[in-house]
Queue: 2 jobs
Job 1
Amino acid sequence: MKLVTAIIKPFKLDDVRTALADVGIQGLTITEVKGFGRQKGHTELYRGAEYVVDFLPKVKLEIAIRDDQVDSAIEAICQSATTGKIGDGKIFVSHLEQAIRIRTAESGDSAL
Ligand SMILES: Nc1ncnc2c1ncn2[C@@H]1O[C@H](COP(=O)(O)OP(=O)(O)OP(=O)(O)O)[C@@H](O)[C@H]1O
Ligand SMILES: [Mg+2]
């Protein structure tokens, strides 16, 4: 299993959620976060305004999926989250050791 962590522009959340549902992703967690990329100290557009602060609002998605879902999930996020401008975000993929559905005690792929 893999844990896909994606940092996206907040206004893209609905598009990304729809795109992920379309490729069969059943669950995800989001967190409102702040961050910066390589333009640290430079301006980036947010809701039409130029921010000169280092930290910009982003949304973090965490998606636990089977190994065979990783490519389609990445493709779905990339296509739906892009504007072509700086700050579109990033995707990190990590190995996920275990998953457990609390109600049924199912574990592994069956718990996703
Ligand atoms: N190396 C990193 N580690 C952790 N979080 C990161 C890293 N790079 C970017 N992020 C997160 O992703 C968000 C978006 O990053 P961003 O898309 O600006 O990356 P970038 O490398 O500057 O690319 P671009 O040139 O397209 O802007 C940041 O605000 C931050 O929350
Ligand atoms: Mg950037």
Note: The two ends are 9 Å apart (CA to CA).
Job 2
Amino acid sequence: MSPSDTPENTTAPGVEGNAADAPLIVFDKVVKRFGDLTVLDHLDFNVEAGERVTLIGPSGSGKTTILRLLMTLEKVTEGHINIGGEPFSHMPRGSGLVPASESYLRQRRKSIGMVFQQFNLFPNMTVRKNIMEAPVHVLGLSKDEASERAAELLDLVGLGDKIDAHPTQLSGGQQQRVAIARALAMRPEILLLDEVTSALDPELVAGVLDVLREVAETTDITMLCVTHEMGFARDVSHRVLMFDKGQIAEEGHPDQIFGDPREDRTKSFLKSVLENGH
Ligand SMILES: Nc1ncnc2c1ncn2[C@@H]1O[C@H](COP(=O)(O)OP(=O)(O)OP(=O)(O)O)[C@@H](O)[C@H]1O
Ligand SMILES: [Mg+2]
């Protein structure tokens, strides 16, 4: 920090300039270890506001770990994550940064939504209640506001007529579309998607991907998406990051990564995905 820095423009490590200029998400030399296993190895990458980024790479390369760090389900071992020009994995204390406390994380993660492979809807609640739960309890919306929002989002995902159904009355694809609506109900700035179609029967995959295409086209939400659906990734993402052993092996526009990959690791990974019938 230079002596001329004022408290207003003091920034966390890895964030250049002020918040308005900074990328939305910054991974700054992030290390994640589980015991002796180094899963992310001094990982640096940025995501701009409104950007849609697809993460690809072999099993165990650290893709889910990246999303779990952003969802605050894991903590960094070393390095920093900043979001919106503010520290995220850490919080300011005195003139420095300390690991973020639970209450700091609870506040900061409101701007992030995640949909997993397993939809995890609350089985004892109607679809409407599933979607209303977090907006009412975390954002403090009135029940009427939350119910209206639930109805709008169910229309978006094509399930307006299922608002009073229970999850067990829905197909896997429909449950996943409810899970997407539930994540969007928090009006997140960032949407994290981890293999959201992998657990679905093949005939249900297209409906879920269509909903996500619609979300991508009609909102400016920032998306980080782990998927083996290469056609979908090519259509919706601005950039593809190929991970290998916790580092970025290659990154580029989807047309380049899928059409003309440069690295052998990317070539062999894409070949194996194709051979597995995805
Ligand atoms: N809680 C944990 N404890 C110990 N090891 C873990 C834990 N979570 C993840 N790992 C390990 O970290 C590595 C990266 O896991 P991660 O789930 O991020 O991979 P991935 O790229 O998402 O793989 P996949 O494509 O199979 O989902 C793996 O070797 C995994 O076994
Ligand atoms: Mg994973």
Note: The pocket of adenosine-5'-triphosphate (ligand 1) is lined by residues 34, 37, 39, 57, 59-65 (CB under 6 Å).
